[in-house]
Amino acid sequence: MCNIESLDIATFILEIRKEFSMSFEDKAQLCLVNIDVSILDPIIHTDSLLLKQVLCNLLSNSNKYTPGGGYIIISLYKTETRLTISVEDDGYGIPADEAGKYSQNSTVTPM
């Protein structure tokens, strides 16, 4: 069951990044947060527990599979119709022929 609530997505991302700060520091990884300045109203309507679970899973995998001294970038940007969160790193990654198994777009429908 979803629990939809209003959420400041920019603050949410910064808080989750902070939760992982010790893990990043332990491996001397640089974690940057890139938030599109054109996002004037960062309030979204979503299930924050599910979104946190997804983002924590992505950051955990990035931390685990990115070598010491590597980088991790969390980005929040907008297009005409949606906001997108991406996590990028310089870890060894998923083989190209398997990438489609793990990639998925999600859409939050306005209430």
Domain count, please report it: 1
Q: Rg, please? A: 15 Å
Please give the number of β-strands.
5
Question: How many helical stretches?
Answer: 3
What overall geometry do the principal axes of the alpha carbons give? globular
Helix-strand pattern: EHHEEHEE
Highest-level CATH class: Alpha Beta
Q: Roughly what percent helix?
A: 25-40%
Verbal overview:
- It is a single chain.
- The chain is of the alpha+beta class and 111 residues long.
- It has one domain (4-90): Heat Shock Protein 90 (2-Layer Sandwich), CATH 3.30.565.
- 32% of the residues lie in helices and 28% in strands.
- The chain has three helices and five strands.
- The protein has a three-stranded mixed sheet with strand order 2-4-5.
- Helix 1 packs across helix 3 (48-65).
- The longest helix has 18 residues, at 48-65.
- It is globular.
